Amino acid sequence: MTEGTLSQPVLQTRDLRMAFGGLVVFHNLNFTLQRGERHAIIGPNGAGKTTFVSLVTGLLQPSGGDVLFNGAVITGASPQQRVKAGIARTFQINSLFKALNPLASLVIALAEREGRAGVSLRKVARETALIEEASALLAKFGLGDDALAVTETLPYGKQRLLEVALALALRPQLLLLDEPAAGLSTEQGHELFRQLAVLTADTTVLFIEHDMNLVFRYADRVSVFAAGALVVQDTPDRVRNHPRVREVYLGA
Amino acid sequence: MSTASEPAARSPAGQGYFASVARWGPGEIIFWAGLVAVFFVPDANLILFGQIVIWGLFAMSLDLLLGYRGIPSMGHAAFFGIGAYTAGYLGKFGWTEPISGLLIAMLLAGIIGWLTGRFIQRVSGIALLMVTLGLNLILYDVVHRQSDLTGGDDGLQGVVIAPVLGLFRFDIFGRTAYLYALAVTFLLFLVARALVKSPFGLALLGARENPRRMITLGTPIERDVSAVFAIAAAMAGAAGALLTQTTQFVSPATLSFQRSADVLVILIIGGTGRLYGGFIGAFVFLFLRDWLAALSPVYWYFWIGLLLVIVVAFFRKGIVPSLEALVQRVRWR
Q: Can you give the pLDDT at residue A252?
């Protein structure tokens, strides 16, 4: 898939519908994400934020409508094809390789990205470029000293960083972060977002976040989801003062 | 640690770690040297040791599925049996050269393993146990009923196997049989060892730990399941073919459910995810069986059952991982 032109949105949905049985999550959702944005999705619980991410990454299939990536329809593409096209995600609840160490975890991601994970008898140790890159990435995330620790023994905050590092190792064009600061203290959350701002400078980032301080500080655009619809999409300042948003959020 | 310091200097943890994972440990060298040495021990029961090697190879092939990819199979004897019958038919109908017969048996078992992998790649957990068991039972029943073709309960008679490389005749002391089985097993072990220490091996571990994460990294985990199933089945087929060629006989027991259960017991006693667990398990299982059957030919399964309970209660992960942990503890001291 091509990179797309600058003016073309990275991600678009066209009349996207999603229903689980009788429960309608989305009704004709039309969403646009421009290249280079740091875009937050907010909304009350049950607004369909995580469902939206899963529809974009292909873990769920929509009941109707289309998802477009760089202008091309990817609705029928498998999750793996979407990763190869340049979409990566993290999960709200850490989804790591608990019994492996961070170094091996990242080498898995890098070997897959480089198409070197197929059946072979070539030792991992000979993949020097991949191992170098994995080590460098760990160092960048401040996980250099934990490279060989068993992942499940790491403190939660570090596991959270590894979750992001795994997605970023794929060098995605579009990175979807599902509540990256979930389970972190306020201070840790800010620290994570500060690091993310540096690490994802060249990537379009779409993130779900509940902490409004983080949202208004780090997003350049904000979408508000409520009851299966996109209520408003605008700059943080305008969203903050939007009457519908106040209504949805504050019940006022 | 003194060699290869150049890349190690740039990323000491990374390169050194993967190099040390792939390095041959003293335990490994002692293990294989010991198996070779057995041949030279006067009066060693080479027929029993040949069985141990073959069962070890069979259990190792299951370890690729269960230990490395986390796929439990209750029907692994199906592939062992396919290899055994393939080698048997070839020998019975004039294709007596053993090495090509072995390769054909592996190929056939591998193809059927690949198809099985495609069939079960979306199944997991308990359902997987049932499906693999079901496939095994179907195959067993087919072989059992087609007694005109397979000899039924009597097994396949009249299997002829030519000398290995045209030189080494299979003798009644099992000397050729032992070395032949050991050589084939060692080669396949090298393949399995390289495989699990490759990026593909890492991807298998990743999918064992967290399939959803592998999907979101872009890994075709279903294709990997078919691939590892094909490889494991081919190796199980090789074990079956070795049994046929070294005994010149095939019985339907080779693909019975009992055999599937035995190989699982062997692997669990020895420990999964180490490749050696199957061999150590086979050693313990067959020696005990041999010894207990001599004491009381009927009740030896009682003792095997007791052994299984003891191992699981006290060694949790099996003999090999427990020994590793012990060695590590001693070293730290």
A: 45
Distance CA A101, CA B13 (A): 12
CB A207 within 8 A of CB A176: yes
Sequence spans of domains, chain A: 11-250
Mean residue pLDDT across chain B:
89
More confident position, B61 or A142? B61
**ipTM of the complex model:** 0.89
The pLDDT of residue B1 is 36
Is the four-CA dihedral A108, A110, A111, A115 of positive or negative sign?
Answer: positive
At the topology level of CATH, where does A11-250 sit? Answer: Rossmann fold (3.40.50)
Taking CA A194 as the corner, what is the angle to CA A193 and CA A200, rounded to the nearest 5 degrees?
A: 75
Angle between helices B175-196 and B26-40 (to 10 degrees): 170
What is the rounded average pLDDT of the residues A126-150?
92
What is the spatial distance between Cα B270 and Cα B264, in angstroms, rounded to a whole number?
10
- Each residue of A52-90: pLDDT tens digit? 999 999 999 999 999 999 999 999 999 999 999 999 999
> What was the pLDDT predicted at B4?
38
Left (φ > 0), alpha (ψ -120 to 50) or beta: where does B145 sit?
Answer: alpha
Task: List the single residue in B13, B15, B209 with the smallest CB-CB distance to A99.
Answer: B209
Residues of B with CB under 8 A from a CB of A: 7, 10-11, 13-15, 17-19, 21-22, 191, 194-195, 197-203, 205-206, 209-210, 212-220, 227, 231
Token pair 């308990």 is found at B126
The span from the CA of B147 to the CA of B141, in Å, is 10
B13 → closest Cβ in A84, A103, A125: A103
